[in-house]
Amino acid sequence: MSKKKVLVTGGLGFIGSHTVVALQEDGYEVVIIDNLSNSSLDVLGGITQITGITPQFDNIDLRDKSLVKNFFEKYTDIDGIIHFAASKAVGESVNKPLLYYENNISSLVYLLQELYKKDYASFIFSSSCTVYGQADELPITEDAPVKKAESPYGNTKQIGEEIILDTCKTKPDFKAISLRYFNPIGAHPSAEIGELPIGVPQNLVPFITQTAIGKRKELSVFGDDYPTPDGTAIRDYIHVMDLAEAHVHALKRLLEGKEKENYEVFNLGTGKGNSVLEVIKSFEKVAGEKLAYKIVGRREGDITAAYADTTKANEELNWKASRSLDEALESAWKWQKVVQKKEKEDN
C-alpha cells in the first residue's frame, strides 16, 4: 500500500515541525509549505536528523492565490492537510490587525478553495483555547461558549473555525477537525528541533530558558494578585510532542472515516493547570539553578486561569497527553543550550 501523503503548512514552525516528525514516524509521506517568515530552513535538517527522511519542501506564501493553485496542480495526490501557517503573537496582532487578518484568513480561504474542488478532503485546523476567553467554568469543555475575542489573533482563530464550519455544511465529503490547543511547550527529546522565537519571546517558557542562559536579564511575572492559590495566572502546559501526536490521531480519524460529523472540535491539553510560579519552580528543579524573576503588574488581555477538559480527545481520538511538566521543561532547557552553542559558533 502506498503511503498517505499529507500537506503540512507552516511545517517548519514550532508545532508544525514536531508534527512532521510524528507523521513521518507513523509512516506518512509529508510535504511542507512554509514561507520562512517565522521559521528557519535549518529545521528541515533537524527533522531529517530525527527521522532519517527529508520531507518535500515548498517555499510558498499562502497569501498568493496563484501559488496555492499551482501547488495543488502539481500535487494532485494530497490525502490530508494540517494547517498551521499563521501569525501568532497576540501583542503584535493588536498593533497590526490587518496583517493578521490578511495572513491568517486569506491563506485559509485559498487553501479551502483548492480543497473544495476535490471529491473528498480531510482538513485539520490549528486553533486555540483563546476562543474561550475567560471561561465561566473550569476545566473547559468543547461546549463552553466562544467568547468575544480579546485580540485580532484570537479573532482570526474564531473566524477561521466559522469559515471551515460553513464550508463543511455545504459539502458532506469535506471533513475537518479544529484542534484547540492550550499552551504548547518543550522540544523534541533529541534537541534537534524546538521552539525558536524570533526576537523577544511572547511565551513564558522560551523567556524562562533565555533568562536562565543569560540572554535576558530577568523574567517578568505579570501579576501575583490573581484569585489563584499562589496569586499567579494558571495555564494548561502541554508537551509539544504530545500535541504533535494528537494531530496524527485526528488525521487518522478523518482518513479512516471514524468522524461522527464532518466538522468536529477537540481540546488539546493535559487537563491540569499550573501557575506561573509552579512552572518556574519546576524549571529550577530540572535545570538545577535559580531563575532571576520579578513580579510586575498584570498584562492587558491576560485571563486568570484556563485548563482543558480532555475527556472528548481522550475517548474519541484515543489520545492522551503522557509527558510531565518537568519533562517538557527539561527538553526546552536542553534545546536552549543547543541553540546557545550554535549561536556562539556562528559568531
From TrEMBL:
Pfam families: GDP_Man_Dehyd. It is an enzyme of class 5 (isomerase). SUPFAM superfamilies: NAD(P)-binding Rossmann-fold domains (SSF51735). Residues 7-330 form the NAD(P)-binding domain. The keyword Isomerase applies. Gene3D superfamilies: NAD(P)-binding Rossmann-like Domain, UDP-galactose 4-epimerase, domain 1. InterPro entries: NAD(P)-bd_dom (IPR016040), NAD(P)-bd_dom_sf (IPR036291), UDP_G4E (IPR005886). It catalyses: UDP-alpha-D-glucose = UDP-alpha-D-galactose. It comes from the Bacteria. Its EC number is 5.1.3.2. GO terms for molecular function: UDP-glucose 4-epimerase activity. Its cofactor is NAD(+). Keywords: Carbohydrate metabolism, Isomerase, NAD. GO terms for biological process: galactose metabolic process. GO terms for cellular component: cytosol. CDD domains: UDP_G4E_1_SDR_e (cd05247). Pathway: Carbohydrate metabolism; galactose metabolism. Belongs to the NAD(P)-dependent epimerase/dehydratase family. NCBIfam families: galE, PRK10675.1. Homodimer. This is UDP-glucose 4-epimerase. It comes from Christiangramia crocea.
